[in-house]
Amino acid sequence: MKALGILNFEPYSINVRGIEEYRPISAASFLGRFRVLDFMISNFTNSGIDNLKVFIKNRPRSTVEHVHSTNYNINAKRGKIHLLHGEKVYTNPIYNTDLAAFESNMSFIREVNADLVIVAPSHFVYIQDFNKVVEEHLKKENDITVLYHAVNDANQAYELCDTLQINEEGRVTAIATNSCKYKHRNISLESYVMSRKLFMTLVERGRKTSSIYWLRDILRDSIDDLKVGTYAHKGYVACMNSLKAYLKANLDLIKEENLNTLIKKDWTIYTMTNDSCPTLYEAGARAVSSIVGNGCDIAGDLENCVIGRGVKIGQGCKIKNTMILPGARIGDNVTIENAVIDRFANVTVDSVLIGEPSDPLYVARGDKI
Amino acid sequence: MVQKKMVAMILAGGRGSRLYDLTKKIAKPAVNFGGKYRIIDFALSNCANSNISTVGILVQYESVLLNSYVARDYLWGLNMAGGGVYVLPPREKDNEGFDIYEGTANAIAQNIDFLDQADADYVLVLSGDHIYKMDYEDMLREHVETGAAATIAVIQVPLKEASRFGIMNCDENDNIIEFEEKPKNPKSDLASMGIYIFDYKLMRKYLVADTKDKNSSHDFGKDVIPAYLKDKEKLHAYRFKGYWKDVGTIDSLWEANMDLLDHKDLLDLFDNEWKIYSEDPMTAPQIIGPNAKINEAYITTGCFIDGDVKHSVIFTGVRVNKDAKVRDTVLMNNVTVGEGAKLERCLVMNDVKIPANAHFGDKNGDKILLVTPEMAEGK
Question: Fewer CB in 10 Å around end: N or C, chain A?
Answer without folding.
Answer: N
